[in-house]
Amino acid sequence: MQNNNILNIMRYFYTFLLSIIILGCQKDKDDKNTVNQKSKDTALAFSTAHYNKQSKLPCKDTCTYADIEVPLAQNTPVVADSINNKIFNTVRSIVYFGEKPSNAKTYKGVVDSFVSSYEEMVRDFPDEGLVSWEAKIKGTIQYRSKDLLNIKINNYMFTGGAHGYEGDRSLIFDLKTGKSLAPEQLFTDVKSFTALAENKFREKHKIPLNKGINSTGLMFEGEKFRLPQNIFFTDKGILLHYNAYEAASYADGAKDLLIPYNVANDYLKIK
């Protein structure tokens, strides 16, 4: 009888001990899930911001409008603020009419200012028969790695004249700080990379090595090859993008050169 009591006590003890171990493991698992969820919630994420405005003045076909759609960084205040400020300032430097960009502090202010500029022109010159203006911005995430973010800003502007202007802007950011990166911060040796790019560019556009870079009708300033103002990271390699007028006439359009990573990696600071 005494032995049975001892066995029962031991059985209850082991059951109690096992329950404590199971509860402890579950709590540890719940704590880890909470930490992982918090980590996920605070990772840099993006939503889309969209602003547009159309003039209410009478128009025949397309009415004057401004339309801005851009990625909006969030969740990491310092990094996100730096990225968002750079994107905003870039857009503001594109969407305006006059000698300098407006003093707008928001995207709504940018579209309002553009449309207001048109309406003011119509009021000041009612007999000129002004054509409608257009401003369209489309920002997208071109490329993202653990260290680098590349935003593409496609823009179209028309404020009169023979034709509008369309181009692409490249904004490259260090994801650790949110600061934008200049070409000299991307390459270990800009001069060597430029020489490589010129050889590849000549090969693609069939420009003889013993001829000037503009010998086939291009328009590089000072007859000297230069890296474009906009360099993009893509899944396949580094894309050198020359907007219209940067290396060729408007009629010839933009010029592109893709340098695969197996070639470009030797010159990149950020792999």
Give an overview in words.
The chain is of the alpha+beta class. It has three domains: 1-41; 45-174, Fervidobacterium nodosum Rt17-B1 like (Heat Shock Protein 90), CATH 3.30.565.40; 183-267, Alpha-Beta Complex (Actin, Chain A, domain 4), CATH 3.90.640. The protein contains six helices and eight strands, in the order αββααβββααβββα. A five-stranded mixed beta sheet has the order 1-2-3-4-5. Strands 6-7-8 form a three-stranded antiparallel beta sheet. The protein is flat.
List the helices and strands and how they pair.
Blueprint: H1 2-41, E1 45-54, E2 65-74, H2 77-92, H3 107-124, E3 134-144, E4 148-158, E5 165-174, H4 183-186, H5 190-204, E6 230-233, E7 237-242, E8 255-260, H6 261-264
Parallel strand pairs: 2-3
Antiparallel strand pairs: 1-2, 3-4, 4-5, 6-7, 7-8
Count of discrete domains: 3
Query: How do the strands line up in the largest sheet?
Result: 1-2-3-4-5
The main β sheet shows up as: 5 strands, mixed
Instruction: List the total number of helices.
Output: 6
Portion of residues in beta strands equals 25-35%
CATH class of the largest domain: Alpha Beta
Average pLDDT level: 88
Instruction: Summarize the helix and strand pattern as letters.
Output: HEEHHEEEHHEEEH
Q: What is the CA–CA distance across the termini?
A: 76 Å
**Count of distinct strands:** 8
CATH superfamily placement of the largest domain: Fervidobacterium nodosum Rt17-B1 like
Shape: flat
